[in-house]
């Protein structure tokens, strides 16, 4: 038996050299008469994570995975894939090309391409339906989520499943196939195609669900349909055409960008400077119970021990978990386990992490000290983290927006920053580092302040809040700036914007629309009135703000409102980058996508600017600067990038 083991940091990604080595090994094995069969396995913790995303941004190096799969499927000796850990993307293609598959029961197989705006390649769309039928194949490709090998839907994918290391079982199976002298190739399997009516029904059902959406999902359906309608070789060619088209699409480039950016954001200098310590005991000190409830719930859900200093917060958390049991979202033992880790009162020397959420209304509330070597940090409850030594902003709702911002002052201990970053990562949160005092109130506050100020300026010019919010949604934001201000609370927004307006030199009058709403008692969603009213059926323009307003051309000429909002965001991003408040430009895209639900398929506002062309954004800025120079007058960084033919992420046009 020949055992070929994929062994390359990180996660055995199918890099060009690894592919070339595997191709060489296969051809040498084919020529060696002493070897009767081949087993392909992965070293370390998994089989393979597939193609490294960075490779997709340049020419695809030879041998490509398609050629490897053909080499495996046409191999003159039986080939068995021994699978464990993660089997992702193109690695699934390798497994499908093998003549048999053995998996450890805990193996997780996934096709994440759709989450990157792409379709699976390497023959996956043609081979998978032949084994499993259209319905299961489409479920795997369209969900993008890993499925454990023991899932009943995968019973036709694997020849054998074992609780142990699959290598020995795979070698035994390979020997049996060699002794038998015959084996079936996946392309010749017909079981998944045996019921043409059911196959078409599955395709039609998914096509109806995706009606009008287009994009990668629709292309996956077309490719799986081709597996039934076209001869195998033509089906492979069709898949490759669709794959290459999607690979170069703006959507796929944007989603690859944000996927990689999220991983880069986690790379902080402090992680290399000091060892992270576990933070399992958390003390939440002070703060409004409604503001801290979802954060406290998150800590308890992930198994942290929690002490709170206000009875209101303790009662609110208990009520939340009781309600979850009543509604069937949590069982009673789960609630009791969580509440068993909750205590009221905070002791000195107990907590690994003390989060100071005091907002000045608690009087002289004692701030306990953490244990020796523990961490103390300021928690942003809405006013920002300006000037802190070490601070944390957990974007809310904490369970939905999986983003945190770590404010790091010059005197922050590297071990404290590393520990905080590691805790966030272990909780499944993406952390973005904000350098203080350069970041001011914070990165998110800085970006949204620019958006809010631009929106208020457009409203002063005659556009209604509804029209501005609709423009923001066309830009890529899930909620527009006026709805965002209402959700946050207009009093708090006004206080923060006053500071930002002063910093950028904005003159009097900018707050007019905001002050008018506050003068009428419209303080935001919490009181049912802001720029919108909030009846039970949902938000609607507030009385007096529901008129159509002035025509866009009267206010902005030829500039679309969404481009005016985009220009303000890009100018703010340039100010933040020039101040070195953030580690890298892509961190700001992560912040907007993760923290403010910016459309992931556009990659964030900076990536979107590169794709549109920074020159076009600059032209808008120069016109808009006549309205309000502090908001729109182009920052020197923008001028330099355009002058040098650059975008935020490389040469202009490269994005």
Describe the structure.
This protein is an alpha/beta fold and 655 residues long. The chain folds into three domains: 2-248, 2-enoyl-CoA Hydratase, Chain A, domain 1 (Alpha-Beta Complex), CATH 3.90.226.10; 269-437, 3-Layer(aba) Sandwich (Rossmann fold), CATH 3.40.50; 445-580 and 583-651, N-(1-d-carboxylethyl)-l-norvaline Dehydrogenase, domain 2 (Orthogonal Bundle). 48% of the residues lie in helices and 12% in strands. It is built from 26 helices and 20 strands. The strands form five sheets. It has an eight-stranded mixed sheet, sandwiched between helices. Helix 15 runs antiparallel to helix 21 and helix 21 packs across helix 24. 47% of the residues are buried. The mean pLDDT is 94. GO terms for molecular function: (3S)-3-hydroxyacyl-CoA dehydrogenase (NAD+) activity; enoyl-CoA hydratase activity; isomerase activity. It is found in: Peroxisome. Keywords: Isomerase, Lipid degradation, Lipid metabolism, Lyase, Multifunctional enzyme, Peroxisome.
Count of separate DSSP helical elements: 26
Strand order of the largest sheet: 11-10-9-12-13-14-15-16
N- and C-termini, Cα separation? 47 Å
CATH class descriptor name of the largest domain: Alpha Beta
Keywords: Isomerase, Lipid degradation, Lipid metabolism, Lyase, Multifunctional enzyme, Peroxisome
InterPro entries: 3HC_DH_C, 6-PGluconate_DH-like_C_sf, 6PGD_dom2, ClpP/crotonase-like_dom_sf, Enoyl-CoA_hyd/isom_CS, Enoyl-CoA_hydra/iso
Protein name: Fatty acid oxidation complex subunit alpha
Domain 3-hydroxyacyl-CoA dehydrogenase C-terminal: 447-534
